[in-house]
Amino acid sequence: MSKFRLLMARQCGEKIAADRGFTTFPVDPFVIAAKEDILVEAKDPDRKGMSGCIVFNDDGVGIIYATDIRSEGFRRFTVAHELGHYFLEGHPEEILKAGPVHFSRAGFVQGSSSIEIEADHFASGLLMPTRLTREALYKAPIGLTGVQHLATAAEASLTAAAIRTAECAPYPVAIIVSEREQVSYGFMSEGFKKLGRLRFLRKGDGLPHTGTRDFNAVADNIRLGRSVCSQSTLAEWFGGSAGTILDEEVIGLGSYGYTLTVLSSEALADDPDEDENEEQDLIRSWTPKFR
């Protein structure tokens, strides 16, 4: 899955939000669906498994979203994810190859399916456009508090807000989502990647012996949404400098069943004016040049 395709999916989501008149937070995916004459319905909370589905048939398009996870932000992300399947080029055709109904597990926990990853990035761009996200982060403290500020402003899930923080933050920050003793996925900001030659954590990797692993050992920490703050080092997490101290802020994600870890430090803060525009550089590198 190329970074360029994910960038295009995210920017498609941002464009849809702007074209539908959303220039401030929050962006409402239910309103956007209504404007497209897409029927959106809630699924019975007793039915668990998938986060939602999209249906393409002769009568029109419908979206069903799960309600067993008690997070309005997650439900909004699920609807935005399904809208990605509707708006992204090639998705309806790919889905219809297998039939009119397509089930999803939104929230960056998919396997290798490219259209699911693209739909997640569309959803993050739709709900948290880059300009609005950066404005919110500039006004908030570094770390978990900044992520929570963005989630509140955008009415987004904490995990989606954390991922957008890593993508847009003008300072070094990394986020890890984990379950028990294993990493589920992780993201680093551009500033964080510049801290040295770092080992990137992938799904299934074991958690280091830090505060996150200790936190995950107590099931009630996750179920009750508890949070703790401790310190660890860049070396413990990514094999970087042992002298680089990180604030390790950990919070349980309730019925979602995962843990979010935010790794940052006030001492590593970048000057926002020196932030490079990676997206423009990436687009420029892919733009054909003719003689």
Automatic annotation (TrEMBL):
<dbReference type="InterPro" id="IPR052345">
    <property type="entry name" value="Rad_response_metalloprotease"/>
</dbReference>
<dbReference type="InterPro" id="IPR010359">
    <property type="entry name" value="IrrE_HExxH"/>
</dbReference>
<protein>
    <submittedName>
        <fullName>ImmA/IrrE family metallo-endopeptidase</fullName>
    </submittedName>
</protein>
<feature type="region of interest" description="Disordered">
    <location>
        <begin position="269"/>
        <end position="291"/>
    </location>
</feature>
<dbReference type="Pfam" id="PF06114">
    <property type="entry name" value="Peptidase_M78"/>
</dbReference>
<feature type="compositionally biased region" description="Acidic residues">
    <location>
        <begin position="269"/>
        <end position="280"/>
    </location>
</feature>
<feature type="domain" description="IrrE N-terminal-like">
    <location>
        <begin position="70"/>
        <end position="164"/>
    </location>
</feature>
